[in-house]
Write a structure and sequence with these properties.
α4 packs across α5. The protein has an 8-stranded mixed sheet, with helices on both faces. The chain starts with 19 loop residues before the first helix and ends with a helix. It has 7 helices and 8 strands. The relative contact order is 0.16. The chain is of the alpha/beta class and 234 residues long. It is globular and about 40 Å long.
Length: 234
């Protein structure tokens, strides 16, 4: 069981940005891996220049608000999005396996992700972000997007996973909630990566009603940052 399995994210979306046109441009593919069958939901961009392959965390699926928003927004900016469901999730299990097994599933998926011939940005939220960081260099990822990177288990800053983030070996963007119990932005070490804060947000990028920004505005911080960053990747 991964350390961040107990409180991974909030999956409900306050304002689902998915349009009818976006839905029509989606296809689904089942991919066999050594960890079991995975599933990829392709959100196609016309004249795509990049592919963002993004997986969920240990406590939720591709229904997470940030993943749904990215899938809806990025195709209009020339980025095809592949929403990846890891084998344990496809199998209906409620608890994620050990990191080694998660990495095995991601490696098994990679040929299908690379098949379109586009530069692949390896991405994930929470546990999925750790997988992306750990495997980026060996798989030849173009870059890494780490959403809600679990820097440490809640209340245990001494159990740092910073080495995974710092060791991705490729251009990396971390997008972190300002009130994330798995690691607030101020706790992140300096290094060769970019860090964007979503004010007031928790691990699922949810913001409290008393926050000075709305839930939609918080999600827009995520999508705006990723649009700008992917645009800079060439």
């Amino acid at each position: 069981m991964t350390n961040d399995a107990t409180s991974d994210e909030t999956n409900d979306v306050t304002n689902d940005p998915t349009s009818d046109e976006t839905t029509r441009r989606r296809t689904t593919e089942t991919v066999p891996t050594d960890a079991g069958e995975a599933r990829v939901t392709w959100c196609h961009a016309e004249n795509a220049r990049l592919l963002l392959a993004v997986s969920h965390g240990a406590g939720g699926g591709i229904e997470a608000r940030d993943l749904k928003a990215l899938a809806a927004v990025l195709p209009a900016h020339g980025v095809t999005v592949a929403l990846v469901e890891q084998p344990w999730r496809v199998a209906g299990k409620k608890v994620a396996p050990a990191p080694k097994t998660l990495d095995t599933g991601w490696r098994g998926l990679w040929p299908a992700l690379a098949a379109p011939g586009l530069p692949v940005v390896s991405a994930g939220r929470s546990a999925g972000a750790r997988v992306a960081c750990r495997t980026a260099a060996e798989l030849g990822a173009h870059a890494v997007l780490a959403l809600s990177f679990p820097l440490h288990p809640p209340g245990r800053p001494e159990k740092s996973r910073a080495g995974e983030l710092l060791g991705s070996g490729v251009p990396t963007l971390a997008v972190q909630g300002g009130n994330d119990p798995f690691g607030k932005p101020a706790e992140f070490p300096g290094g060769a990566y970019e860090l964007v804060e979503v004010p007031y947000a928790d691990h699922g990028f949810a913001v409290p009603k008393r926050a000075e920004i709305s839930q939609d505005e918080a999600v827009a911080v995520v999508t705006d940052a990723v649009v700008k960053w992917t645009g800079s990747l060439g």
